[in-house]
Amino acid sequence: MEYKNNTPVPLERKIFVAILIVLFFNVILILGGFYLINNRLAPPAEDFVQAQKIAKELVEYNRRLAQTLGVESRSQVHVALSQFSYDIEQADNGEDLNRAILAHGSRTQEKILEEHETRQRETVVALVNQDEGIHDLDGRERLTITVNSEGVQVEPINFLQEETLIDIAENVALGEQSSSLIVDVELDDGRARLMTPYDSVEHIRTLTREIDSLRVTLHELRSQAGYAEMSGPGVVVRIYDAEDGYTNDTIIHDGDVRDTVNELYAAGAKGISVGNQRLVNTSAIRCVGPSILVNDERIAVNPVVIRAVGDPEVLASGLEIIRITLEVSRDLEIEIEKVDNLTLPAY
User: What are the chain's domains?
Assistant: First the structure.
C-alpha cells in the first residue's frame, strides 16, 4: 500500500528550518573557535577566556538542537553534551580547548542527529502497533516502510491500514538532512518491533569517527607521557651558579636540578624539559665531572633552563622554598618567569 502525501506539514517545516539555522551557527562557531584558539602564538588570558566562552556557546547550540529535535533527554545525547561541557570547563589553555572541540564538536552533533533518526523509527513502530489490522496476525512477517517526499510506501503491500500510513506521514519529519527514512519492522504475533539492518556505509563512518577519537586520545597520552610536544602556559626557571662561584657549594649540581623538578611536579606540572630535554618516566639527571647530563645528553649550564607547563602562579609558588634555600645557603641565583605560552619538545 502506498500513501501519497501531497500536503505540506507546517510543523515539519518549522522544525527543520530551526535545525538549519542551528547548524549554520554551529559552523560559524566552530570556525570562530578555531580562529581564536589556533591563530595566536601566545594568547593573553583574556583571549583564552573569550575562546572558552565561544566553545561554551557551541555546547549550548548543540543543546538547543537536541531540544528542538526532542532528544535532549535521551541518554546518549545527555552523555555527549555533558562530556563536551565538562571538557570545555576543565580546559586550562587553548590546546585543551582545541582537543575538546576536535573530540566532541562534530561527534556530539552527529549523535544528536542519529538519536533523532532513531526516535523517528521508534515513532513509526509505535504507530504500526496501533494498527488494528496487525493484532490478529499469526506468526512472523517482515515489513519495510519507506518514508520520503512522495509519501509512505510499505512492502509487502496491504499489511497496514491507510489511516496508519497517514499518521506516519504526519508524524515523521524528514527535513533537509535526509531524503528518505527506511524502517524495517518485524511483526510477531500481532506486535511490531524495530529491526536494525546492517548498514556497511554507516558502520565505516562509525569506525572512522572512533579512529579519529582514538588518534586524539593517543596524541594526548603521548603528550602527557613526554613523547609528543606539549604547549600551554607555565614557567621558565633559570638556575645560575653563585657569582664568581667555583667551589663545590657554589655551582649547580644534578641534585639541585632534580629537587627543582620534583617541586614542579608536586605543584602540578603537566610536563617538564631540562636544557631542552623532555623528561619522561625513565629520564635521568646526573653529573659527569663538571657536566650535567639529562637523558644521557650534555646540557648547557649557568644557567640551567627548566621549562614546565602548568598553572604559572601555582608552579611559581611551589618553588619558593627551594629558591630561598638555594639562594640563602648556596648563593645560587634562581629566576622564575611566568609565561602565557611555551612549548616543550618531544622526548
Answer: 2-220 (no CATH), 229-344 (3.30.70.1880)
